[in-house]
Specification:
Layout: E1 4-7, E2 10-12, E3 18-24, E4 33-39, E5 46-52, E6 57-59, E7 67-72, E8 77-82, E9 91-98, E10 102-104, E11 108-112
Parallel strand pairs: 2-11
Antiparallel strand pairs: 1-3, 3-8, 4-5, 4-9, 5-6, 7-8, 9-10, 9-11
């Protein structure tokens, strides 16, 4: 069982930055993959970025060049640094962990608006 707690969401102006954090209840080194997904109103949940055991990362096209996923194994935390935010990035962002079973955090709202 893995519990995930997200933080760092909020309201930001277009062009601004936010950093999301996801704290896991167990060592993230034992988790095969951890990632960030988002769900905008009326849309399906979509992958934003994932980091796989060994450190390999993968990004949605919409996130490439603007978002960076990273992890701190000492803190059992995964981060999503989001730069150059756009209104279309507005969504609830969810942390995801897969260690053979799939776990979700409660989500954190990100709103990009002037």
């Amino acid at each position: 069982q893995v519990q995930l707690v997200e933080s760092g969401g909020g309201l930001v102006q277009p062009g601004g930055s936010l950093r999301l954090s996801c704290a896991a209840s167990k060592s993230i080194l034992s988790i095969v993959a951890m990632g960030w997904y988002r769900q905008a109103p009326g849309k399906q949940r979509e992958l934003v970025a994932v980091v796989i055991a060994g450190g390999r990362t993968n990004y949605a096209d919409s996130a490439k060049g603007r978002f960076t996923i990273s992890r701190d194994s000492a803190k059992n935390t995964v981060y999503l640094q989001m730069n150059s935010l756009k209104p279309e990035d507005t969504a609830v962002y969810y942390c995801n962990a897969n260690d053979g079973s799939v776990y979700w955090g409660q989500g954190t709202q990100v709103t990009v608006s002037s």
